[in-house]
Amino acid sequence: MCGIVGYIGEEQAAPILLEGLSRLEYRGYDSAGVAVYGGGAMQVRKAKGRLSVLDGLLDHGKALEGVVGVGHTRWATHGAPSDVNSHPQVSRSGKIAVVHNGIIENYVQLRSFLQEQGVSFVSETDTEVVAQLVDYFYEDGRVDILEAVGRCLRRIEGAYALGILCADASDRLIAVRKDSPLILGLGEGCTFLASDVTAILRHTREVIYLDDGETAVLTREGARCYDHLMRPVEKAVSHVDWETDAAEKGGYEHFMFKEIMEQPEALRRAILPRLRGGEVVLEGFGLSDAYLRSLKKLYIVACGSSYHVGMVGKYNLERLLRIPVEAALASEFRYMDPILDEGTLVVVISQSGETLDTMAALREAKRLGARVLSIVNVVGSSIARESDEVLYTWAGPEIAVATTKAYSTQLAVLDLLGLYIARRRGSLDAGTCREVLEEMARLPEKLEQVLSRRDDIQYLASQHFSHSSVFYMGRNVDYALGLEGSLKLKEISYIHSEAYAAGELKHGTISLIEPGTLVVALGTYPPLTGKTVSNIQEVRSRGGQVLAVTTESHREDFSHAAGAVITVPDTHPMLLPSLTVAPLQLFAYYVALMRGCDVDKPRNLAKSVTVE
Ligand code: F6R
Fold first, then answer.
1. Strand partners, 71
2. pLDDT tens-digit profile of 411-460?
3. Best residue among 349, 351, 362, 488 to mutate for probing ligand 1, ranked by most atoms within 8 Å of CB
4. Interatomic CA distance for residues 85 and 70, integer angstroms
5. Residue 445 C-alpha from the chain's centroid
6. Residue 185 to residues 101, 145, 222, 241, 425: CA-CA distances in angstroms?
7. Any bridge partners for residue 327, and if so which?
8. What pLDDT score does 504 carry?
9. For a FRET experiment, which of 129, 259, 376, 480 has its CA 20 to 30 Å from that of 405?
């Protein structure tokens, strides 16, 4: 997730672009850049690091002449943070500058195509493909720039918001949106484009929301918009009355809520580019098939919520691979003298890529001769750099301390990894793999359905926010989810909470149940729903209150047993946790809100835990 801003008007563009980018820095901050057309040339300045580095280089923008330009603050997805990988990306002729949010899924094929035509690339980014492809179709001005962009759009696949500046047509900017937000701002004698309204609020509150597939041509007088077939469309102008703080949160009250709601889009980014022809495709994956076939054991090592992802992975991957898969807490793993050798793959999971315990576990695993694959959100982070192999989650920056969208994308990437290895080892047939992947592609939409029913969960939270203790129980993947649901609740609402494997109830925990005790019972995993219903009855017969979460097809069974039931759509059993986690996140969020807690910054916690 990056930030985009563009300006065309009568004032010097660079200071406006830099100021706009500063409002977007919370979205991505490993590098930044601007392209401004002025003094008869395209001027591009980029710098790795925080925006302040670029700002200093350009004397707050005063050093760059010109009244039209685009700017970008980057959160790396393809290619490490560096000057060369920063945006704007410029075509070989130097005439086309592009800023981009999102992912071009077929960039590898397009890059090969362009290389065959003699185009050489300077960066590792998917964005450069767009700049080069527009240039390729532009053919040195033989085709109008809008036509060249249109031809490019017909070739690229994926999710993108684009801002395009052409040196030969500096009286306009081109904006394109597909599955990645982009708005236009209409000012007095100037027009803007931006990925978030925050970037332009100081200049205008009159905006046009582009819809998917739409393209716009911006001039200083305004904007003309076109649909996906380049037919002109009339767009409504909306007035924004948010203050900047609310705008950063996309109009939501908290980052946590925004990030919960962003999960379908984050899942799309994590999953869709990795599916092709019924198989998982991991671009540039360095672990050979022979190595994957030789594996004897997998360890999944992480902390906190990332460890809970590992717990789900233990169930799912063991079933897929038919070799032992263990989930271990990184803080324990590093001191437990684990038995590892070259037949063990250690998968470390970390949103931040900087968690010290996880880092230490990674080093210990390497010291003992295992190979390490990491699943990480922050590109170029320490864990990513020290691992033998990395799979990025592409969730975008996560600001709230309590993780939500990073958890969901970690889960999706771990499932993809399991399916990929299982196919290499022959423990999964092509037909079943295809079926699971088809279901996986539907997850974002199903998750949207779950999130759209958030009012029901808010209502349940209003019934239960005053408990002093809440228990979670479930079996198999539902047990792993219970751990996550319980952590979410306790860390942001400060309610004491514990999670148990439901079968353990009668081995001790049941003594805690007294009239009124709240138990959240997770019963989605189809082979074991009946068992969970029995556990619910045990709780209810001791006066406990039960809030059950199950699938739509099991609603009846649970509504007889539990006081309240939340359902999620049916899907392949291994994918259920990706849906079930959402009501748990929302429940924790609403409860914390009703208790007046600081949801985004819970006491005593930090987003990145770099101490032991
Ligand atoms: C809980 C939470 C933490 C992190 C844990 C690991 O909501 O966010 O439990 O999951 O501190 O952090 P990463 O994934 O950055 O290594």
1. 5, 34
2. 999 999 999 999 999 999 999 999 999 999 999 999 999 999 999 999 99
3. 351
4. 16
5. 15
6. 18, 22, 9, 13, 53
7. 300
8. 93
9. 129
> Which has the closest alpha carbon to 367: 401, 344, 399?
344
DSSP-derived secondary structure letter, 143? S
Please give the full DSSP string across 294-326, using - where no structure is assigned. Answer: H--EEEEEE-HHHHHHHHHHHHHHHHHH-S-EE
Question: Helix or strand or coil: residue 482?
Answer: helix
DSSP assignment of 323-342? S-EEEEEHHHHTTS-----T
Task: State yes or no: is 607 an active-site residue.
Answer: yes
Q: Of 301, 309, 349, 352, which is best to mutate to test ligand 1, by the most ligand atoms within 8 angstroms of its C-beta?
A: 352
Decide: residue 104, CB within 10 A, 0-12 exposed, 13-18 middle, 19+ buried.
buried
Which atom of ligand 1 sits closest to the CA of residue 608?
15
Other CB atoms within 10 Å distance of the CB of residue 114:
19
Identify residue 18 by its one-letter amino acid code.
Answer: L
AA letter at 328: A
Is the separation of the CB atoms in 610 and 354 below 8 Å? Answer: yes
d(CA 110, CA 131): 12
d(CA 26, CA 245): 11
| 2 is a catalytic site residue | yes
Assign 501 to helix, strand or coil.
strand
Answer whether 263's CB lies under 8 Å from 254's CB.
no
Chain centroid to CA 375: 12
Distance, CA of 367 to CA of 295 (rounded, Å) = 18
State pLDDT tens for residues 107-117. 999 999 999 99
Matching residue, tokens 């295809």: 434
State phi, psi for 84 to the nearest 5 degrees: -70, -30
